[in-house]
Amino acid sequence: MSSIRILKNFLVIARHKSVAAASREIGLTPAAAGQQIQQLEEEIGLELFDRTKRSLNLNTSGRSLIEPIQEIIARYEALGSNLKSDLSGTIVIGALVSSLMGAFGKTLNELKLRYPDLEIKLLAGLSSNFLDQVLEGSIDGAIVTESPFTLPQNIQWTELYREPMILITPALETKKATKPSPSKLKLPFIRFERNTWTGHLVDQTIKANKLPIEESMELNSVEAIIELVRQGIGYSIVPKLANISWETDRQLAIQKLPGKTIYRKVGLLERKKHGRQKITDAIKQHFLSQIPK
């Protein structure tokens, strides 16, 4: 029967959708990793992937095994947990890069100090991409923006914290204008990619504040947008990330929006039932404990 290690490697390969990419994380050669998958399929008596020359995609049988395999691994890692007071084991979490620059980045360090036997594997990406990965079970959860769409019934999202959407401009341009505003700034608007969840919030902010916008480019990285604004290439609307020194940044200026403040809500996306709920519950409880009473 396949070992726990092979079952873990199956989950990594399912997440990467490529034996070559997964092998770097697993620490095996692509050939050895591929042999493990073949061994698992032979033991189960089913093909688990649809194979192409460049990728492996879970088929119906493979997707149906994700949750049972996660449960087996969780039970194995929980052996001896009655003797331990701390959480242990591995959890795979997707996270917006901007969330690592926000409140979640600090949380990771605090969780690791509190639970030294807990291993957190992070994947950076976009909210919409993580939803598919959470659905198929290739990751345990994701730190994402609140979805502008209705989520599937077996998925839940729990708010962890909020970030106000702010208007940022180059500091030099702000000094030139007597009353800086989008209509008076002779700069193009740099937009966060509109078909993303954060992009929907930018649209909402523009409409709520009736801002006159002349667009020039579209990016899917808050960090890249901030840097372009620093360089004086344009201005933008972004979430006010917790771990950036906005007030002391000499190249940036925050402009007060003329109307309603829109908030980006960041939370934990997960299946309603999964094998790592003790860990995701600890993450959620950490944020709840930070809220002033």
Question: Under the CATH scheme, which class of the domain at 163-264?
Answer: Alpha Beta
Question: What percentage of amino acids are in beta strands?
Answer: 15-25%
Low-confidence stretches: none
Q: What is the chain-wise order of helices and strands?
A: HHHEEHEHHEHEEHEHEHEEEH
| CATH fold-level label of the domain at 163-264 | D-Maltodextrin-Binding Protein, domain 2
Averaging pLDDT over every residue, what do you get?
84
CATH architecture of the domain at 163-264: 3-Layer(aba) Sandwich
- Output the number of helix runs: 11
Please give the number of β-strands.
11
Largest sheet: 9 strands, mixed
**Helical residue percent band:** 40-55%
Structural class by sheet pairing and helices: alpha/beta
Termini Cα gap: 52 Å
